[in-house]
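Supplementary Methods, section 5.1.

A reviewer requested that the exact input to the structure prediction be made available. We therefore reproduce it here, unchanged from the version used in the analyses.
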Amino acid sequence: MSLKEKILIADDSEMNQMLLEEILSDKYEYVMAKDGTEAVDILEKNEDIDLVMLDINMPKMDGFGVLEIMNLRHWISEVPVIIISSESDVDFIRRGYDLGASDYISRPFDLTVVRRRVENTLMLYARQKRLVRLVEEQVYEREKTNNTMINILSHVIEYRNNESGQHILHVRMMTDILLRRLIEITDKYPLTETDISMIASVSALHDIGKISVPKAILNKPGKLDPEEWEIMKNHAAIGDSMLRDLGTQQSETLMNLAHEICRWHHERWDGRGYPDGLKGDEIPISAQVVAMADVYDALTSERCYKKSFDHATAIKMITNGECGAFNPLLIQCLLDVQDQLFENMHTDPRRFDYRQEAKRLSDEMLEQKELMPNNRAHSLLTFEQKKAEFFAEQCGGIQFEFDHWTNTVHLKDWNAPVDQREKSMYLTEWNDVSLLSEKDWLAMREKLKATTPERPEVKMIVQIPVNGEYRWQRLTVKSLWTTKYKNYAGVLGHFKDIQDEMVRRGEDVLEKCTEDSIAHLLKDLSRVFEVVRLVDPKTNENLELDKDGKVITTPIHCYEIWGRNEPCENCISSRSLEGKEWVTKLEMRDRQMYFVLSKHINVNGRTCTLEIASHEDEAECARCGGDNDAPTRSSFMNFYRDTLTGTYTRLYLESFQSNLESADAVAIVDVDLFKQINDTYGHPVGDEALKTIANTIRSGIRGSDTLIRYGGDEFLLIFSKIGEEVFYERLKQLRRAVQETKLPDYPEVKLDVSLGGVYRVHPLSEAIRQADLRMYENKAKHANANHAESR
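The structure derived from this sequence is encoded token-by-token as follows.
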């Protein structure tokens, strides 16, 4: 990868191109375009252009046309442009500046002028890019905190009234979109960027008063009676009162907005809302916009008392006044942004444009010349130097960087294909990295706690997945510290593959081990590994040594230890015999993960395989983790567990969707006749039915599969590394297992489910949508079949 800055020279004269390249020397990397159309095409395909030198008079598309497109596509804020022309007309030059050009060079070229203007322009934009990166990290940290609090609040609301946890996130997103459009079409409401950001953030509090409403009313499937409706309406005033109880120590502006939104987001433009009957612009604009966002999301979401409406129907209902009266200006905003709204509501609602916000803040700082050197900026430069030194010593393999300030990890796997080599992620939990086991993660964290600026480096031997197989690695990690205050700032790490080295060590041990010493070898290994045994790879029978060292066959099969009744699909003993080498794999027992290694050996002339295994014990992980404030994966993940069924909640899907995107198969499971069970036997029996079905499904899937309570009586199943035929057969088996299950106290209750599954459909959101459609198709078939039987 070139470290030179890249310049695009767009000029229809080959002579001018050669002349500019000669003037600027080999200090830069060059890309040439002979007309404006080709220049735009190059900019589209190359994100690493640092500067454009743009001739104005070119065929097909002139330089002004290129500048207009760069403005339209927002490239001009990232890539500086120096226009080139022999024209000296002032209006001509002014037009170039108006379109965003950074500088102007006239022909014939002056060597010194060309060089200095190129250097100055690149230096100015490099300064801007560095500042954007610094500010972006600060914005990212701020938004990370905001989103964490909003996600917790979403989880509370979801727990209380069975609304989707995304409701608050959707309201926040729509509030932001509507406000930005509002300030574009009118100056009636003088809102700043800070105002918009603050209103969107505190919109999360709009229904906080519902915490006081009884769950029976919140989750009532039918229409509320007058008394219940009065109780429900009280939530607006109660939410306002709750905020007032916080006192005045909070931000005055923020709290004023929170009061407005909580109390008045159910007021209506015509004065027929509640709790105070405000009319028109007596209602603060913050509450008006949140009210519209709240209504739209309520219409397009399924609730306990209604089905969802599609996007177009919801827009029509709001604009026709079927859902109350709204400010005509907001109605116009809604119509203007409806396409953007539809697109955003079907993407991750937690998405935030950090770059745009960082660019805005850095522009303000540049204008105010607030660029005093600080510890963070100096540390970044120091870290770049340390990183270069560290990775120069650790060539190849897998490298990673962890930034403590932004909580992000950047991985680079030099063994992977070029397009899959690098990956960046925001770290929310230990298995996001998808490399270290929990035990190794906690052990590494404990070792890092003991590092200091003077002794920053530690090493470990670990196993990580490489191309579907677990291989031994030597992990070297180095902690980073700020120069001035000696504060922990991040980690550099490198995995070096030592599988072959470990295998050679194993070979050496076995070569030195005589038949007489096999028993001693097994005894020594048993001190380290939980499972140590000899297996007949042809019959899958466990073997033992008698007192004379002779091999004898036992009636126990090797696969029984994994809770199986037949040989494993991925039999490690057979593979080690075929390959004549060490083989590794993962196995599950009692929902615990085991690392298994196997190697063929000869004992008294009999071919055997030596099999050793160790497991990840959560109690041991907790001990390795150090302080009591660091939760184990088990306790941490309980936050994402549904209290009734023990499955993951919808919040788990929303929080870790990126980790599940590579799944092979997805299925939606819907409980049949669930409402009838509730109506006939009562909700406690319905709850028992849900728990029983969830346990039945869980017992029929693998530990690597994911089961999520997707809705009230719907479950989402996500399968990884599964064949297509096996997947569809598994769905049939799960349905049969549910049908055969009985409730102990209510044997007359018939349990059944409808399932819909898709294989190798991506992205995950589309797979879920298609699986849901297939589930409803199958449910209709079941209903028709039952109807035919009853007739």
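Residues 111-161 form the longest helix (51 residues). These observations are discussed further in the main text.
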